[in-house]
C-alpha cells in the first residue's frame, strides 16, 4: 500500500484517528494518565500510534487486530522511550556525552535500536537534546550537556545510530528504528530549574544555544520531533507558530511528523490559552500532527473543521505525515516484519550487548580528582604490593562503603522503562569478579554506612516507579560507626555515594542538587579515619561537591552507567581502562552560581584573569565565578603536555595545530579541545565557544601533532530580530583559538579569519 492511495480511501474520522497516539498503560507510566477503551477505539480506526505497550505479545495482538479487523487495515506504529539502551541499559545520555566519542554515541544508539526493534518498537522518543546549564533540572540526565556544538554532533550521531540510513532502504535495516528529537525548544532553560516552568528567552539565545541540536537532528534525517511542555516567552511551544511553522517547516523544511508531548495539548487549557476546542485548533494549525494521550484531536478536530477553525488540508497533511512515518518504518510493506519472537529472544539482553554496555560505561566515568596519598602515589589505578605487608602474607584490604556499593536497583538510571534491575551488576559484584582473578590477594569488606536518603517523604517520591530507595531501620550512628570501624582497618576505602536513579529525570528538580546530608555525614566520618579514600559518585546530574571534594583523595564520577556499571567502574579503578571521559556540564560550587557554563557572555564589566573579586566587575562577593569543575575537565592516568598551538587559514577553514606529548610511563588518552573567541559584532558573543575536539591515544613518552579543522559553520553567531528570521552567521575578523585539556586550561593562538 502507498501513502496517497490509503489517504484517498480514508474517511475524515479515519484520518483523524491516525493522529491519535495513546498509552494503554501496560508499561511504566511516563505521565499522569493512561487511555482506556482501547479495543473499541482501535477497531474503530481511532488510534494511529501507541506507546507504553506491555510486551511483544501485546504488540503482536494489537497489530493482528489492526490488519485483520479494521476497515483499511492500516498497521499500528509502536513507539517507546528508548533513551539510553533498551533491555540492556546503557549510560545516561549525559554520561555518554562525557565520552566525547561521537562514534561511541552512535554505537550506543544503534545498540538500543537493535534491541528495541527486535521487540517490535518502531520509533523512539529520542534523542533528547535540550541544552541545559542548570543541574537543578532533573532532565539534564537525558541531555547531551551544555555545549550546542558538542550536543549537535552527538545528536546527529544518535539519529544515525537509531535510524541507520533509512529503514525502508535496506531490509537488513531490520535493526533500526525511527527517532523523534525532543523537546522543541528551550525546555532546559526553565525558571529556577523547576520542571515544566516557564522559559524567558530571546531569539538570539534560542538560535545560538537551543536550536542547533534540533537542526542537526533534522539535517541527519530525523523522522519526528516533539515540542516541549513549557511556555517560551508566554507562548506554549505546543502551539508556537514561530518555532513550529516559521522555523521548523518554512526555514528548515522539516517534512517529518510533529508529535505532542504527553497530554501537552490538553494542558494548553491549564496554560490558560482557551477551552478544549480553541486549544485543539491552535495546536493542529501550528503544525502538531499527533496528539499524545489527550485525545483532543479525535474529540474536537471534526467539529473544528465544521466551524471553519481548521482546514481539511491541515488534517490531510497531518495524516499524510503519520502514514509516511509508517511507510518509512517499513510497516506498510510488512506490518509483522519487526514483531518476531525468535529475533527478540535471541537478541534482547544478550551477552554481546552486555559486553558492549560495560565498555561504553567505562568510557563515561569522569575522574575528577586523584591526589597522592601517604605512599606518595594517588589511590588510582588501584595498586598494592601485599609483599610490603609481612612478605605478602596479608591480603590487600579494600573497604567498600556507602549505600551504592551493593546497589543494583538504581544502576540503570532514570528513563530505563524497558530495563530489568535484576540484570544489573553492582559495584560489589564487579569487585568480587575482579578479586577472584587478581594475582594479589584482596579482602573486600562492606558497610552500607548510610541511607541513600533518611527522609521517608523523599524516599516515597523517589520510589514512584518502583522501590529503589529503602530506609533501613538501623540507627544512623550505628551505620556510621560500623563503616568507620571497617575503614580504620582497611588499606583503601571505596566510598559509593550519590543520588538515586529517580533523583534525576522528569519531574525530579532539586533546589539543592548535592549528595544527601546523611551520606555527607558518612563521608566526613570516613575522612576522619585518614584512610586513603576514593569517592565514587552515582548520579544523573552534576552534584554540588564543594563540601566533599577536599575530604577525599580521589573522585570518580560514574553517573548512572547502566546494566554493567559495576564492572565498568572496576575496569577504571584497576586501570584496565584508562579514564578518558571529560565533563560536558560545568559543576557549580554552589546553587547560587547557577547558571554557570563555559560559553557565558563577557558582560560590559568582565573580571579579568584569575581575580576572584573586583569592585564594579561582574562577580560575587562570596565565591569566584569559576565552577568547581569546568566544562571539558577530567583526568586520565597519565600526564600530557601541550605545546603552543598554531592557527592558520586553509581555504575557508581554519586549521589549529598543536603537539601533545605523553609525559607518563603508561598509555594515556587525551581529549584535545579547541575553543574560539570570536571577533566583535552586532551581538555580544561568548568568550569561549567549543569549536573542535579530538580524542587521541598516546603511547608512553610519545607525542602527536594534532590538526583541528574548523569550518565557518562551526562558529556562527545570531543576527536578526525575530525568532522567525534570526540567522546564524559566520563573523569574519580576528579570532583567538584556545587549545588544551579543558575549558579552564588553554593556550592561545590568534589570527585573522576572512
Ligand atoms: C514524557 C516526556 C517525554 C516522553 C513522553 C512519553 O512526559 O516529557 O520526553 O517521551 O512523555 O513518555
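^ C-alpha cells above, recovered residues below v
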Amino acid at each position: 500500500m502507498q501513502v496517497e492511495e490509503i489517504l484517498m480511501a480514508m474517511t475524515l474520522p479515519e484520518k483523524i484517528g491516525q493522529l491519535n497516539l495513546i498509552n494503554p498503560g501496560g508499561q511504566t507510566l511516563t505521565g499522569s494518565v493512561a487511555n482506556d477503551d482501547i479495543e473499541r477505539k482501535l477497531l474503530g480506526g481511532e488510534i494511529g500510534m501507541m506507546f507504553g505497550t506491555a510486551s511483544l505479545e501485546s504488540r503482536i495482538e494489537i497489530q493482528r487486530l489492526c490488519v485483520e479487523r479494521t476497515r483499511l487495515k492500516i498497521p499500528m506504529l509502536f513507539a517507546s522511550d528508548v533513551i539510553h539502551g533498551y533491555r540492556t541499559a546503557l549510560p545516561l545520555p549525559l554520561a555518554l556525552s562525557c565520552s566525547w566519542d561521537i562514534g561511541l554515541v552512535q554505537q550506543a544508539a544503534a545498540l538500543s535500536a537493535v534491541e528495541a526493534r527486535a521487540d517490535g518498537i518502531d520509533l523512539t522518543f529520542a534523542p533528547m537534546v535540550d541544552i541545559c546549564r542548570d543541574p537543578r533540572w532533573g532532565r539534564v540526565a537525558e541531555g547531551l550537556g551544555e555545549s550546542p556544538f558538542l550536543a549537535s554532533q552527538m545528536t546527529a550521531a544518535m539519529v544515525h545510530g537509531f535510524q541507520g540510513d533509512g529503514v525502508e532502504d535496506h531490509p537488513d535495516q531490520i535493526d533500526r528504528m525511527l527517532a523523534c528529537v525532543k523537546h522543541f525548544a528551550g525546555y532546559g532553560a526553565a525558571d529556577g530549574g523547576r520542571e515544566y516552568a516557564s522559559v524567558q528567552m530571546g531569539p538570539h539565545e534560542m538560535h545560538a544555544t537551543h536550536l542547533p541540536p534540533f537542526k542537526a537532528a533534522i539535517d541527519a534525517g530525523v523522522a519526528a520531533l516533539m515540542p516541549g511542555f513549557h511556555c517560551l516567552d508566554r507562548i506554549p511551544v505546543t502551539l508556537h507558530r514561530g518555532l513550529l511553522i516559521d522555523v521548523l517547516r518554512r526555514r528548515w523544511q522539516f517534512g517529518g511528523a510533529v508529535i505532542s508531548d504527553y497530554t501537552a495539548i490538553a494542558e494548553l487549557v491549564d496554560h490558560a490559552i482557551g477551552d478544549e476546542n480553541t486549544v485543539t485548533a491552535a495546536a493542529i494549525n501550528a503544525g502538531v500532527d499527533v496528539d499524545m494521550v489527550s485525545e483532543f484531536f479525535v474529540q474536537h478536530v471534526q467539529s473544528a473543521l465544521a466551524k471553519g477553525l481548521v482546514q481539511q488540508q491541515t488534517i490531510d497533511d497531518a495524516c499524510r505525515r503519520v502514514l509516511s512515518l509508517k511507510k518509512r518504518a517499513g510497516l506498510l510493506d510488512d506490518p509483522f516484519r519487526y514483531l518476531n519472537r525468535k529475533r527478540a529472544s535471541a537478541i534482547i539482553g544478550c551477552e554481546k550487548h552486555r559486553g558492549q554496555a560495560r565498555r561504553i560505561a567505562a568510557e563515561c566515568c569522569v575522574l575528577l580528582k586523584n591526589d597522592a596519598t601517604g605512599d606518595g602515589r594517588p589511590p588510582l589505578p588501584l595498586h598494592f604490593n601485599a609483599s610490603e605487608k609481612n612478605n605478602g602474607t596479608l591480603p590487600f584490604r579494600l573497604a567498600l562503603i556507602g549505600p551504592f556499593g551493593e546497589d543494583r536497583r538504581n544502576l540503570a538510571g532514570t528513563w530505563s522503562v524497558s530495563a530489568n534491575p535484576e540484570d544489573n551488576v553492582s559495584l560489589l559484584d564487579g569487585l568480587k569478579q575482579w578479586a577472584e582473578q587478581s594475582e594479589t590477594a584482596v579482602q573486600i569488606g562492606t558497610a552500607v554506612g548510610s541511607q541513600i536518603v533518611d527522609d521517608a517523604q523523599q524516599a516515597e517520591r523517589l520510589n514512584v516507579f518502583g522501590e529503589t530507595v529503602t530506609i533501613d531501620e538501623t540507627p544512623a550512628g550505628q551505620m556510621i560507626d560500623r563503616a568507620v570501624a571497617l575503614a580504620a582497618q582497611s588499606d583503601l576505602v571505596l566510598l559509593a555515594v550519590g543520588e538515586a536513579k529517580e533523583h534525576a529525570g522528569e519531574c525530579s528538580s532539586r533546589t539543592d542538587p548535592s549528595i544527601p546530608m546523611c551520606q555527607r555525614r558518612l563521608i566526613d566520618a570516613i575522612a576522619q579515619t585518614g584512610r586513603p579514600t576514593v569517592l565514587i559518585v552515582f548520579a544523573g546530574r552534576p552534584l554540588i561537591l564543594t563540601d566533599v571534594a577536599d575530604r577525599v583523595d580521589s573522585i570518580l564520577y560514574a553517573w548512572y552507567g547502566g546494566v554493567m556499571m559495576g564492572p565498568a567502574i572496576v575496569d577504571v579503578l584497576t586501570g584496565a581502562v584508562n579514564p578518558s571521559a571529560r565533563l560536558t556540564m560545568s559543576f557549580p560550587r554552589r546553587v547560587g552560581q547557577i547558571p554557570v557554563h563555559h560559553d557565558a557572555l563577557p558582560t560590559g564589566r568582565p573580571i579579568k584573569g584569575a581575580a576572584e573579586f573586583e569592585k564594579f566587575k561582574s562577580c560575587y562577593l562570596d565565591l569566584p565565578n569559576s565552577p568547581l569543575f569546568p566544562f571539558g575537565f577530567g583526568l586520565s592516568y597519565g600526564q600530557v603536555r601541550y605545546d603552543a598551538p598554531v592557527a592558520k587559514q586553509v581555504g575557508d577553514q581554519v586549521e589549529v595545530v598543536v603537539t601533545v606529548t605523553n609525559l607518563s610511563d603508561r598509555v594515556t588518552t587525551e581529549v584535545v579541545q579547541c575553543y574560539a573567541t570570536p571577533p566583535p559584532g552586532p551581538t555580544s558573543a561568548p568568550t569561549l565557544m567549543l569549536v573542535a575536539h579530538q580524542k587521541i591515544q598516546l603511547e608512553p613518552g610519545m607525542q602527536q601533532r594534532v590538526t583541528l579543522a574548523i569550518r565557518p559553520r562551526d562558529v556562527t553567531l545570531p543576527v536578526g530580530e525575530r525568532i522567525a528570521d534570526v540567522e546564524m552567521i559566520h563573523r569574519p575578523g580576528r579570532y583567538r583559538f584556545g587549545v588544551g585539556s579543558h575549558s579552564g586550561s588553554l593556550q592561545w593562538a590568534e589570527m585573522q579569519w576572512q
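Residues 102-118 form the longest helix (17 residues).
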